[in-house]
Structure formats: C-alpha cells, structure tokens
Amino acid sequence: RNMRSSLAIPPLTPDLIQVLIDADSIRRRVDDLARQISRDYADSPQPVILVGVLKGSFIFLADICRRLDIPHVVDFIALSSYGLAGSEQSGNVRMLMDTRENMEGRDVLIVEDILDSGHTLDYLIRNFTARKPRSVKTAVLLDKPDRHVIPVKVDYLGFGIPDVWVVGYGLDYAEKYRTLPYIAEMRPVTA
Ligand code: XMP
Ligand code: MG
Fold first, then answer.
1. Which atom of ligand 1 is nearest to the CA of 119?
2. Residue 53 near residue 124 (C-beta atoms within 8 A)
3. Ligand 1: distance of its center to the CA of 9 in Å?
4. Ligand 2: distance of its center to the CA of 22 in Å?
5. Is residue 167 within 6 Å of ligand 1 at its C-beta?
6. Distance from residue 56's CA to the centre of ligand 2 (Å)
7. Which residues form the Phosphoribosyltransferase domain (predicted)?
8. 143 lines ligand 1 (CB under 6 A)
9. Residues 50-94: pLDDT tens digits?
10. Is 108 among the domain residues?
C-alpha cells in the first residue's frame, strides 16, 4: 500500500530529530489566525492583498486564505534566499520577483513562513510601505526569538520555536521536506 497517501503521516527520516509541531496543532493555530484576520479586516474598503513570500510560505498561505471569510486577493514575491543547501543567514536581501498588485491605498498582509534575523520582513515592510498602502501587517507561522537581529512587528504569529533548523509545511532543507504535514527539527549538518 502507498504510505504516502494523503492520510498517512510520513515517518521521520534519519535527517530529522523530532516533530516540533504536529499537523493538528498547525491546523488549529491556522484556524485561530484566519479567524482573527477575518475579524480585523472585516471593514476593509477593498480586498486585502495577501503577499506570500516564496517559496516557504506557500502552504501556510494556501491554508490561511482558504479559511478567510473576507474579500482578498493572493500575490507573491520572491527574494534571494540562503545558499543552495545552506542555512547561513545574510542581511543582504534582494528581490528576485516582485508582486503584481498595485498596493496604493490597499490593506497588505505579508504572509511569511518564519522569522529568523528579521532582515527579510524588515526589508518587505519598508519596501511595501513606500508603495503607499492603506496598511501593512505581517502573518508569520514560526518565530525564532533567539535569532532576532532587527526588531520586526509580527501581527499574527503561529508559534515561537527554539533556534534549530526546521522543515515541513512549506519549509525546506535544500528543497527537501516541504510537503511534510508537520514541522520537524533537522539534524544539524556536519561538514
Ligand atoms: P530572516 O533572517 O531574514 O530569515 O528573518 C527569514 C528566512 O530565512 C529562512 N529560514 C528558514 N527556512 N527552516 C527553513 O526552511 C528554518 O529553520 C529557517 N530559518 C530561517 C526562511 O526562508 C525565512 O523566510
Ligand atoms: Mg522564506
């Protein structure tokens, strides 16, 4: 029988130390966040622009937007990321692909997988604010508070986590593990 059917929970591989957040906990938290977001934007004059930060946020974004009961549109942005297989952070954020919606006068909600140093969200908030939106807020699934270098305001937070590399639910290591339904801790890679 195919163990990768949608109902089976994929087992941990030797690369993964433990499940940090299981699929049920993610679902419940995403439900809460979507309810909160729907309430807060209920009086938006125009559809909210949800901007998913590629690629890590795509599953979080997909789950959030399908639970919203407010008018919204989905957009995406791609930024330079860490090295190919690496996990080194750099404060040097570069745009690879811009959004397509005109943000002027609109409510913009940045949807990000994880807040680490803060460089990425700081860059996005500044960049989007310059486009004269009605508002810019952030929804972040995971936060590593021990890693912050730049303070960033998170309006909707899923979970705080320790300073470990995590994969699953959109997050990857060298493009692997994105489709795991849970968040798992990666075994540190030794050179
Ligand atoms: P900064 O440092 O700009 O980083 O806040 C945010 C980006 O770093 C990536 N990141 C991770 N990706 N597992 C991942 O798959 C992790 O544990 C992790 N920590 C940081 C992520 O791309 C995020 O957008
Ligand atoms: Mg990311």
1. 3
2. yes
3. 24
4. 20
5. yes
6. 5
7. 26-173
8. no
9. 999 999 999 999 999 999 999 999 999 999 855 434 445 567 899
10. yes
- The domain tally of the chain equals 1
What pLDDT is recorded for position 5? 52
185 lines ligand 1 (CB under 6 A): no
Mean pLDDT of 114-131: 97
Q: What CATH code is carried by the domain that includes residue 39?
A: 3.40.50.2020
CA 17 to chain CA mean position, Å: 22
Q: The domain containing residue 41 runs over which residues?
A: 23-162
pTM score of the predicted model = 0.92
Provide the ipTM: 0.96
In a domain, 172, yes or no: no
2 falls within a domain: no
137 is a domain residue: yes
